[in-house]
Design a protein that fits this description.
single chain; alpha+beta; Thiol Ester Dehydrase, Chain A; six-stranded antiparallel beta sheet; 3 helices; globular; PAAI_dom; Thioestr_dom; Hotdog fold thioesterase; HotDog_dom_sf; 1,4-dihydroxy-2-naphthoyl-CoA thioesterase activity
C-alpha cells in the first residue's frame, strides 16, 4: 500500500519542478514506488566542480529535491507542508560523468517531522553518496 497522499505520478512530479533548481541541474524523477521516489541528474559542466567531478552541492541538491518532494507527497497539502530542517551527506567516491541515480526512502514519518534517506549511485551502480534529510511538517496557516 502506497504511503502517498493522493495519486502522484512521475509526469506530474516532473512538471511541478518548473523553472527552478531541479530543472536547471537537469534532474528528472524516473520512478515512484509505494514508499520511495527515484530521480536522476547528469554529471556534466553545470553539476561538476572545478576538478572535473560531481560537485558535492549538486549531490545534496538532488538529495534534498527528492527528500522534499517525497515528504510533501505524504501529507495532505491542504493542511500541511514540509520544509527541510537539516540535511547531511557523505560523499563516498567521485563521479566524473554519466548519470547519477538517487533513491529516497522514508526512515521516519511522524506527525511533526519526517526523516528520509537518499542513496545515490553512479552509472555503474557504485554508491557515491548517502544523504539524510529531516523535514518539519508545518500546518498551513489559516486565513
Amino acid at each position: 500500500m502506497a504511503i502517498w497522499h493522493g495519486a502522484p505520478t512521475v509526469e506530474g512530479i516532473n512538471q511541478s519542478m518548473g523553472d527552478c533548481m531541479p530543472s536547471y541541474l537537469g534532474m528528472q524523477v524516473t520512478e515512484l514506488g509505494d514508499d520511495f521516489i527515484v530521480g536522476t541528474m547528469p554529471v556534466e559542466d553545470r553539476t561538476r566542480q572545478p576538478f572535473g567531478i560531481l560537485h558535492g552541492g549538486a549531490s545534496v541538491a538532488l538529495a534534498e529535491t527528492l527528500g522534499s518532494m517525497a515528504a510533501n507527497m505524504v501529507v495532505d497539502n491542504s493542511k500541511f507542508y514540509c520544509v527541510g530542517q537539516e540535511i547531511n551527506a557523505n560523499h563516498l567516491r567521485p563521479v566524473a560523468d554519466g548519470l547519477v541515480t538517487a533513491k529516497a526512502s522514508a526512515v521516519h514519518i511522524g506527525r511533526s517531522s519526517q526523516v528520509w534517506e537518499i542513496r545515490m549511485h553512479d552509472a555503474s551502480g557504485k554508491l557515491n553518496c548517502i544523504s539524510r534529510i529531516t523535514m518539519a511538517v508545518v500546518p498551513v496557516p489559516s486565513l
